[in-house]
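Running co-folding for magnesium ion.
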Amino acid sequence: MLKLQNVSKYYKSNDIVAMGLRKVSLEFKLGEFIGITGESGSGKSTLLNVISGLDTYEDGELYINGEETSHFTLEDWEHYRRQYIGFVFQNYNLVDSYTVLENVLIALTIQGYDKSRRKARALELIERVGLASHINHKASKLSGGQKQRVVMARALAKDCPIIVADEPTGNLDTGTSKQIIDLLKEISKDKLVIVVTHNFDEIKEHATRKIRLFDGEVAEDKQIKSYSEVTTKEYQTNYNLSLFELTKFSFRNLIRTPRRSIFTFIVALFIMLVFTFSFGSFSKNTEGGGNIYGNNVFENVSDRRLIVTKYDATPFDTVELTELNSINRVNYLLKHDVIMDKNIYSYDDQRNRVYSVYNLMNPADMLNKSDLVSGRLPTSKYEVVVEDIGDYAIGDSIQVGFDEVIWGLESSEIPPTAERFSIVGITKQIVVNDYRTRFYFHQSFLNAEETIREAYLGRRYENQYFNFEIEVTPKDDSEPVTIQLYDMNFLIDDSLESNQVLVGYQQLDQLSQMMYKLPYEENEDFYLDLNIDLTVTTSFYDNTHAVEIIGEYTQDESSEYFGNVIAMNQTTFESFVDLRPYQITLLVDDAYDGELIIDEVKDEGYNVIYPANILNQFSEISQLISTIFFGFLMVILLIIIYFISYVILKNIQRSKRKDFIIFRSIGASKKDLNKVTILELILLFTFSYIVIMALLLFNESLAKTSVPQYLKYYQFSTYFVVYSILLIISLLLGYRFNKKVFSDSVITSLTKE
Ligand code: ADP
Ligand code: MG
């Protein structure tokens, strides 16, 4: 079975060479019960360790079943220990946190013992060593004798041919020692049993052979009893634990060392938290829109504003509005997007002056509570929230109007459209040093008919939405000609009769040249009784009415526009204008939501314009920079997280050393134990991942009003990516910890512990 030929073993430490074994030649057969004696330091343990593959040897050769072992790899020795060796040591190497049953079972699991019979076998052996009543006791709670009996049960349960015992009774009283020796004898029948003892008498009646060592050499070797040799049977070649067994193994370790697990779990929670929030803010800062500085197309570029129109340029009906409003993540639907780009003027009662020329009119529904610096959101029609520019205070009463209506007016002259609003809240300034101030109105004000009318029609010098065309028939009876009046300003002059218009001299010049081939100056009164078809065109509709040009617009000559004006009364103008919702706004929380909703709205068949996505050059570059910057930060953060958790978990992992060495000594492979460490971490990380995600999901409505509203930046793929990164961290940590645990050979580790 085993054969040593001139085997030598030295220990070198600090230039001192100690002799463990000196050219030892021995042969052991299956069925023998061998007692090894010798005084302390004579090499007994060294011999056992070499025989059982726990320690290496230098010279000579050890044969196992006739096979040389000098070329054995780490895996070969692991396999040998797993399939051939059952150990009993003086210092009872048990996994303290495991129960009696678990200590025995784990040896069977590692060996790959028939699954269906594992438990029965373990119980049988535990009973045989007299511990049936202690099956579920923790190993740490047992007495020395009980511990040694568990070790015996573990060694015996394994289906292995060699049992080695190094002073198994060394720490036990005589009574208990006798039981242990009897047990050894009992199971020695078809095995090779090698027992080291300095008290040979205790095994005298069982031993078939006595070997005495002296100074690393065999001083005596004699057979004292006959034995029946047993033929060697085939042992299972190799066994690797299945993933399921490994997971169970890891799970048991976690359960059995709750303090260690909880601590690691807390660290994992911390990593998850840091990671979740930083990943959230990474997405928030790099994805989508984010252009709040304005562009050439829209005055009001908020990443909370999403413009929707229909491809067929018809107005939205109620069903469509309801459908759009019910899209997930849409906070509010503003029926008239025109309001968003409207400039308003404000007049402050207390301070008696008109404020900045450009104020943006926003719906209060685009604000979250967290946007407020102080005060509250408006709850009624004439309450307003203003941006914090230092000019306004809560409780101030202001009046606002579109265009220039209240410009230069005394407060008593302010027209009724300039309503009195009380300021109920102040918001953060969105763009620092912006020349515009944002006002946030309650929806009942924004949806009021007079507001919508006012927003579309304005008062004067306002042609953002309307183009004008006049069809004229030249006096020489040639075909009618359509004149496009670009850059035309309309204004309301209620002193005019219905369907009468006054036209600025530039338009009159154009018309005169079309009709008479004469410039206006040479044809001064050509417009008298001139009836024309005037068409007002928007992107969505055109309305044509016959109007009569009754003269030249000559008022307001101080205005830069006056030569390019068409004036009519309110009623006439309204007949050209369609107040149905053609262009609406969906209000969202931010650019990230905006991006998500764009696709959804497009899928529903609508046209979407996202002002925040119309980048100017500056924001394009800044977005690229922020992506690079935050990407870099994320990587740095990951590295920091990795090292911090490594340092924190290092000691925890070190406390696993002893258990892992025991697993190794009973044959667990390094590879499998590596996997166990990693699986333990993965289990804890997964658990913390689930806990954090559940908490945040559960909390989402709450999170909306407070700082951590990052979860919404997680999409399915994000969850996956975050989880993968966590797995990678556990893998890296696991590998590093394993390196530490396995840095020494099994026996060195064992003696160190
Ligand atoms: P025994 O078990 O018979 O008391 P050992 O086999 O433990 O003897 O030791 C044999 C010799 O080897 C002793 O001189 C001992 O000092 C030495 N020795 C054993 N283990 C080591 C070690 N790890 N490092 C250095 N010397 C050792
Ligand atoms: Mg010894």
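Result summary
The pocket of adenosine-5'-diphosphate (ligand 1) is lined by residues 11, 13, 18, 20, 38, 40-46, 751 (CB under 6 Å).
Residues 101 and 304 are 63 Å apart (CA to CA).
Job closed.
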